[in-house]
Amino acid sequence: MNDDSQHNDRIISQFTRWAQPFADLPIHSAEDGMARTLAAAVIAPTDTVLDVACGPGIVACAAAAHAAHVTGIDLTPAMIEQARARQAAAGLANLDWRTGDATDLPFADASFDRVVTRYSFHHLREPGRALAEMRRVCRPGGRIVVIDATPAPECQAAYDRMETLRDPSHTSALTLDQLRGLGRIAGLEEAIVDGYRLEALLATLADADDMTALDTMFDADIASGEDRIGVQAWRGADGVRFLFPISIVAWRR
Prior knowledge:
Blueprint (H helix, E strand, L loop, with lengths): L2 H15 L1 H6 L6 H11 L6 E5 L5 H7 L4 E6 L2 H14 L4 E5 L12 E7 L8 H11 E12 L6 H11 L9 H10 L3 E13 L9 H14 L9 E3 L2 E14 L1
Parallel strand pairs: 1-2, 1-4, 2-3, 4-5
Antiparallel strand pairs: 5-8, 6-8, 7-8
């Protein structure tokens, strides 16, 4: 088994276990982040949309209210099951779902008007390859949107250590400059750069077995007053809370 296959197996294992909790987390449907995502995508009523690494279909179902048709694709079958359940609960007819790899999309060139992905690039060994695939399946004149956590350069290593403790399928979170650089390499024209902070409760995002090491890391960071992880963490009555630094970058194809 090669490294890519092993990593994909790690993703499927992690998100099969987390499919239901991930779908139920309120932060994934937060109104401000979703509004900014849809604004960056500029979806017209005649547009076809592809949501890459769609997870439980949160972005895809939100986009379906604005588009002619939306396709969601994810590596993990359990996530596609959650997406279908979300579609059914919302009574949406203009969606379909596929199981597949973000770095090898099973679609013809120029198949979609809008291609988006949210919170996925930090799971990929080759995010540039995924962006090249997103460009390939996007029609000329279309738009590609990537939303993900982007730590400050000086915090990137500590942020990655935290995320790897929390989620073994994490590879590395790009800085904003690195993400924008992938767009330049892909030959895309940058259209929008936006961002937001997403408040999270650590205990809802990690397995219980991982909490001791994570608590130790966050307590040290909070005590230092230096925000070395780059997430402005604090300890509240319900545990450690922090702010994911999320960036949105949209490009014209």
